[in-house]
UniProtKB/TrEMBL annotation:
The chain crosses the membrane at residues 130-150, 195-214, 290-311, 323-344, 365-382, 402-421, 433-455, 475-498, 542-565, 585-608. SUPFAM superfamilies: alpha/beta-Hydrolases. This is Integral membrane protein. Keywords: Membrane, Transmembrane, Transmembrane helix. Signal peptide: none annotated. Residues 16-25 have a biased composition (Basic and acidic residues). InterPro entries: AB_hydrolase_fold (IPR029058). Residues 1-29, 223-270, 798-826 are annotated as: Disordered.
Amino acid sequence: MEQAQQWAGAGGHDAPAPRDGEDGRSGTALELLVHGVGGTTPAEMLDDPRTVRVTGDHIAAVFRRAEDADAESRPEDYRGRPVPEAYVWCNLTSGNGTRALWLLLLPFMVVNLAHWMRPSARGRTRTVRLYGLLVRLAGLTLTVLLVAGACEVALDLVAWQCAGTRACAERHSWLGFLSPVMSDGGWWSTPGRRLALAAAVPAALAGLLWYLSLRTWRAYESQQPMDREDGPGDGQEAAPADGHGVAPEEDRGTVPEEGQVTVPGEDPAHTALGRPGFWYGRRLVARLRAAHTAAALLTVAAAVGAPAARFDRRPGGPALLDTLGWLLMAALAAGAVVVVAVVCRRGRSERHLDRELDRRLVRHLPLAALALFVLALLYGGWSRPGWSSAGRLPGDMTFGGIVLVQGLLVVALAVVAHLLHRSRPDARAAIRGLGGPAVAMLACALGGVMSGGVAQRVSDWLDGTGTSIDGPPVLLTWQASVIPPLLVVVLLLCAALARHTWRLARAERDDIESDHPGEAGDPGRTRRIALTRALATLTDRAPLLVAIVSATTLLLGAGALVGALTTDRAPADAARGTYAVVHGAAETAQALGSWLIGLGFILFVTWGRRAYKDASARRTIGILWDVGTFWPRAAHPFAPPCYAERAVPDLTWRMATWTRATGGRLVISGHSQGSVLAASAAWQLESSARKRVALLTYGSPLERLYGRWFPAHFGPAALGSLHEEVDCWRNLYRTTDPIGGPMRLPGDPGPDVDRPPLKDPLTYGRTELHPLPAPILGHSDYQADPAFAEERRRLLARLRPDVPGPRQTGRAPSVPAADGGTTGNC
């Protein structure tokens, strides 16, 4: 490996690759294996218990078999076989126990996904920017909502209501020093000082979010991608710079900017994932982190200062405090305007490595918000004779305002997404291009359930009888009450899907028996295979499920908001005096909703606690992050870290240095999510290196999931361009696989990518070679299929030391495959 690093250092960016035959190295081929979700071990990937780490660290690294550690110094030993390497990245998503804290960031991760679900667009630059702007604003409302939920618990329920009520304070003796009665008018017993002390809880939450964002950036996303010789966009000229020294800002992964020059002969279907700065969002994350941290602190400052300012505005109040209150509210409003402006304008470019950092903004904006927070604490804690806490904390309609803004943003986002989809229709796009708005709606609902659930549980804990304090705002009770109707809709959908799956399984039985003529039938085995195939198709039904659940959530949320605003009472109280069935349904929904939201909160805490202590549970959570945190943090800086900003540069560096140092070519072999990383890394290569790479994917969600849900980046045009630019690409899949599927490339782009579906199980009944029943593999163990070795052998045969194999301009001639089908001759 040291020899390889020496060759890489000698053959830098400007050095030509060694000619064929130089140093005897050009015949060496590399097979780079990339695992999928859930991770694995180097020994399992390389099928050898003796492995060594050749480059990388404890988070992500490349491994070889011990006998291949010095393969570069013995090229003659690898004339007829490749050097196998395994890239292991599972620790990026399932490491130590602190990852359990990432569960708090789940709504932020979901809204960040909505940013990347933008439909493909043609000539709609401003509309694309508006789409990204709306998602970023929705992400900002989630930050405010989460901090407002913490303020509701700490300031309203604990400090204002319970500490200010004798019965509640006596029930919880630890609140005695805050109670005016139990402390006999102690120093902390005034309402303003109680609020100032309780503000430490939401302020600590804001600090924790800031710390997690900063720490995870340094640990996972600070890897700079490789500089490219052919400049921005792989042959594209950068757009004219604006007054800040960067190209006019656009959403990460958008259509070309106005003024972009296209090089003659360039394929306009290049995906944004090939831009040099796509996987390096330091400036963007830093700006958004500063803005969201400031928004969180301003929210807490408003929660402390607004009640005091309202009390000072009473007739006969002190003029000085009234004036200070108005000045504080004006300063907080100005700070909010600045935060929104920063979120609206991100100021970065993907067309080159953006190493700049807006240091003044990143430092001064959170510090200014912190200063206003401290001033709000001083102002709110000032002595005010005659001020007492009664009822709920003034300003409880904050939640109603947040919900209203979120609903309007989702509706506007749906309109923009529809316009983008119409400009370039894609029949395979999920929900006809409305996947982003649907997921954004679910993110807002998830944030509301988390914040409302905590408030509901704390209220029940403080006052189980419901007689001493008023409890959380009415809107939160209405939101909990709409959960049972939503679950009814979900259950009906699940029943419909189960019925469809059962019918499909029955139809599959005849096909299974016809695939194995001459063999004795086994009804039980046939049913199992048919059911596995039918269940695998549920993945393709996910867009329908998400669309209906999201639309139902929007309608029920709007109904809850209207009910709370018009009645200002809980659903059961508002329905009192109506028909008995209506009142009974309202009472049932309210009680059941409170119970369900409490159960969900308990499960959430239990799961997080288990993940903190149990490595296997933490690994299960890591699978969720494998799918949800592939994308950079473009909409929300507090989302879990993007592991691809570490993994993609790692793979790109490894492939580029190998081809440059040895003059050889390589096969990058990716399973499941590893195929997405492999494709992304191939797009990041220089065009000359990309032509020396063959791609083998199996169990790949590239088209089935990413192509449908993220059409702007993995749509048909993007995948078709990747097929044309790499030396060869072959894809393996099974009909029993719920994740992987065919690529379905449009037109006639050349050699076939998709091999006919692999048989699963490999044998139907008992044979001489397989005396025991073969298992149904589904998404796993693709390497156990003979077709895998066959396709790898074909790809490696193309990696001869002279020149890349000729690409067919038409469809490649078909040759017999091991499973009885045909395969394109790459």
